[in-house]
Amino acid sequence: MIDTSSPLVRPRRLRSTPAMRRLTSETRLNPAELVLPLFVREGTSEALPITSMPGVVQHGLDSVRRAVTDAASAGVGGVMLFGVPESRDAIGSGATDPDGILNAATRVVAEEVGGALVVQTDLCLDEFTDHGHCGVLDALGRVDNDATLERYREMALVQAASGSQLLGLSGMMDGQVAAVREALDGAGFIDTTVLAYSAKYASAFYGPFRDAVESTLVGDRRSYQLNPGNRREGLHEALVDIEEGADIVMVKPAGGYLDVLADVAAVSDIPVWAYQVSGEYAMVEAAAANGWIDRKRAVHESVTGIRRAGADVVLSYWAVELAGWLNRGDFA
Ligand code: PBG
């Protein structure tokens, strides 16, 4: 019988001093594993606040230059650029215009920090279409998968030519990884890396992002993004993308999908990333602004949880701020 007056096993030993806790920590965060998403808006040179994402802004071409320089100094691994165009049309022409805001911003950012971190771009049509869908529509108003792949191929070439080193395929069209890989290789962009947003769920937590990109979405994305209740399907999507030649797979959102993340991480032989999305950011910011939560600890803990579940890299709107804390040794 176990003598309860003196436990034989005392797990608290490993938590007894700060030095012991530091030594036995299983998950450590490093600035290099963080990627900062950035919004660049056409027609502004200075930063404009985003109401639903306090602390995040829509950049102009001047302010984004400073933001990426700060990101590079903080040691983050990369920046992911999103464009906010002034005008939109049915096929998202701005996405493939070499002078469209995303491509113009990519050239600026690549010139500024292309050697210091990985310059990444969102490859999706939703910011550029007037109906707000991630693809082009057929005569019945449905998202036309294969016609969209043609647009993604064109986008890939323009983004690569603009200096993007890593393309974030976030549209959830079937066959998008293979289509983009083939287009890139055919044009000689053999080193341009493909990040597949493999398990991207139809999530309410993208709400603030839609403000950030001034989305005009009509309807919803449930015919192409995953059903939040589906775990097996998330894994399936990742395996398909690996088969199609993805360099990196991603799960998104992160916090509510840690089981899917762990599933993918358990079988993937390529890097697994996760996107801590706008709604995850906004929830912590709102609670902190009300004094209901310790903001700094909540930020650190939320990203730690995502890393612990299996993400090698985390896209987070807190990337630079968190990197700053890590560089100072605030959580050591
Ligand atoms: C699509 C895209 C979205 C996000 C990233 N890429 C929006 C969507 O699918 O509706 C959301 C990111 C976030 O909420 O932070 N281009």
From TrEMBL:
CDD domains found in the cross-reference section: ALAD_PBGS (cd00384)
Claim: Transport is one of the keywords in the record: no
- Could you tell me which InterPro entries the record lists for this protein? ALAD (IPR001731), ALAD_AS (IPR030656), Aldolase_TIM (IPR013785)
What the entry lists under PROSITE patterns is as follows:
D_ALA_DEHYDRATASE
Cross-referenced Pfam families, in alphabetical order? ALAD
Functional pathway: Porphyrin-containing compound metabolism; protoporphyrin-IX biosynthesis; coproporphyrinogen-III from 5-aminolevulinate: step 1/4
Lyase is among the record's keywords:
yes
Which GO molecular function annotation, any one, does this entry have? porphobilinogen synthase activity
Question: EC number(s) on record?
Answer: 4.2.1.24
The UniProt similarity line reads: Belongs to the ALAD family.
Q: What does this protein do?
A: Catalyzes an early step in the biosynthesis of tetrapyrroles. Binds two molecules of 5-aminolevulinate per subunit, each at a distinct site, and catalyzes their condensation to form porphobilinogen.
Which proteins does it associate with, and in what oligomeric form?
A: Homooctamer.
Protein name, as recorded = Delta-aminolevulinic acid dehydratase
Protein species of origin: Luethyella okanaganae
What is this protein's gene name?
hemB
